[in-house]
């Protein structure tokens, strides 16, 4: 369906056209009319289906129309999200949509100095996209007031539940006007999410569920590779070399793991960058800027980033470590195959991770195809490292090991 059918403002339609948005996705087609009418909406839609625009378009339109007819003061829409990256991403979407309108949107999150954020708030904004921590700090300091909020959006609500934000959600609810619209968006649904959702939306809320039989995008092909845990780094290097044109996000379980994998790639002369919660916000911003611009084609990330990375043309997601919760698999691989693009998800599975793989397959409702890739036979090298070895010596040992393997492969 074309966006003109929704009778949106001319300014907003011009912005949509400039962004290359001409026809709706399924979630947009089903959600926009209800949101425009002020109805509560409970939407379950997998990542990459255009759900941010599904709520951002009608919100910008309604606020813009109201500002054209009367003077409107205060925050009119509050969007709560679980991570900084997601707040930035959604803030960018709102600002792109509001370019030629009178609507002002602002993304607020921790990890950066708050003085500039306070100045922005005091200048006046209509839409606040925020993570709970920094928002509560500024509410307690008297810089944020929610008495004018007309619409509350809870995005990635399942992840907010995982992170223990349910009390924050309840606290915010008590600070809002009694009569307000609530939009509840989640990529997955289970008993806990249902309970949370129905505690937030009105009883006559519109429920929308996109592709309930398939929790992940049909544009993504799924594969798994079996290997020992200690061999994963070798398989990764070989797979990356066999796919030199790809744009990769590699998911690992911990910050330490991310840095170690980056070191392995560096020793194989493969450039990469890391993204995890221990980096300060300035560094995280620089990493994402470089990855979006294509200055680096390989990003190694922890799950904290799985929901906040909306980068065009990511061709591959590699689960270097399988996620402990199968739902996180959905969010990880949702970074590829977005919109109408195709994507590949490859999961490295060690023997001790087989149960995690079974859980993922159960969630997907199908077996994941086993992928065989030609790689150097590292096990044929019998050299073993000494029992005690410094980190520098270990690096040198591994470099020699790789060099031996390459020479052996050439002889074959």
UniProtKB/TrEMBL annotation:
Domain Helicase ATP-binding: residue ranges: 32-207
GO cellular component: cytosol
CDD domains, per the entry: DEADc, SF2_C_DEAD
Pfam families tied to this protein: DEAD, Helicase_C
Keywords: ATP-binding, Helicase, Hydrolase, Nucleotide-binding
Domain DEAD-box RNA helicase Q: 1-29
InterPro entries, per the entry: DEAD/DEAH_box_helicase_dom (IPR011545), DEAD/DEAH_RhlB (IPR044742), DEAD_box_RNA_helicase (IPR050079), Helicase_ATP-bd (IPR014001), Helicase_C-like (IPR001650), P-loop_NTPase (IPR027417), RNA_helicase_DEAD_Q_motif (IPR014014)
Nucleotide-binding is among the record's keywords: yes
Start and end residues of each Helicase C-terminal domain: 231-379
Gene3D superfamilies: P-loop containing nucleotide triphosphate hydrolases
GO molecular function: ATP binding; hydrolase activity; nucleic acid binding; RNA helicase activity
Coiled coil: none
Q motif, short sequence motif: residues: 1-29
PANTHER family (UniProt xref): ATP-DEPENDENT RNA HELICASE RHLE (PTHR47959:SF13), ATP-DEPENDENT RNA HELICASE RHLE-RELATED (PTHR47959)
Family membership noted in the UniProt record: Belongs to the DEAD box helicase family.
Full protein name: ATP-dependent RNA helicase
């Amino acid at each position: 369906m074309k966006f003109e059918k929704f009778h949106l403002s001319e300014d907003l339609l011009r912005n949509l056209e400039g962004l290359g948005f001409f026809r709706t996705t399924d979630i947009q087609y089903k959600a926009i009319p209800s949101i425009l009418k002020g109805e509560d909406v409970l939407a379950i839609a997998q990542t990459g289906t255009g759900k941010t625009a599904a709520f951002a378009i009608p919100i910008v339109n309604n606020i813009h129309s109201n500002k054209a007819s009367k003077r409107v003061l205060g925050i009119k829409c509050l969007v709560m999200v679980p991570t900084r990256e997601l707040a930035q991403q959604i803030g960018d979407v709102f600002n792109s949509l509001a370019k030629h309108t009178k609507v002002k949107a602002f993304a607020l999150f921790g990890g950066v100095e708050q003085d500039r954020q306070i100045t922005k708030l005091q200048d006046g904004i209509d839409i606040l996209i925020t993570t709970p921590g920094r928002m509560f700090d500024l509410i307690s300091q008297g810089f944020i007031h929610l008495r004018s909020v007309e619409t509350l959006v809870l995005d990635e609500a399942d992840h907010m539940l995982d992170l223990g934000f349910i009390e924050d959600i309840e606290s915010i609810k008590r600070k809002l006007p009694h009569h307000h619209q609530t939009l509840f968006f989640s990529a997955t649904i289970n008993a806990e999410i249902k309970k949370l959702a129905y505690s937030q939306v009105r009883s006559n809320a519109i429920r929308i569920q996109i592709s309930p039989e398939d929790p992940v995008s049909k544009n993504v092909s799924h594969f798994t590779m079996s290997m020992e845990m200690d061999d994963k780094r070798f398989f990764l290097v070989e797979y990356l070399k066999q796919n030199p044109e790809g744009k990769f996000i590699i998911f690992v379980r911990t910050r330490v793991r991310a840095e170690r994998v980056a070191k392995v790639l560096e020793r194989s002369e493969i450039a990469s960058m890391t993204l995890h919660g221990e980096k300060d916000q300035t560094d995280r911003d620089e990493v994402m800027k470089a990855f979006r611009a294509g200055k680096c084609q390989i990003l190694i990330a922890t799950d904290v980033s799985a929901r906040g990375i909306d980068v065009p043309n990511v061709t591959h997601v590699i689960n270097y470590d399988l996620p402990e919760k199968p739902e996180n698999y959905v969010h990880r691989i949702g970074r590829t195959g977005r919109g109408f693009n195709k994507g590949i998800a490859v999961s490295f599975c060690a023997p001790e991770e087989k149960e995690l793989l079974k859980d993922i397959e159960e969630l997907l409702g199908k077996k994941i195809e086993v992928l065989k890739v030609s790689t150097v036979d590292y096990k044929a090298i019998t050299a073993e490292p000494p029992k005690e070895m410094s980190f520098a010596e270990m690096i040198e040992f591994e470099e020699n090991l790789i060099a031996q393997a390459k020479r052996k492969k050439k002889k074959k």
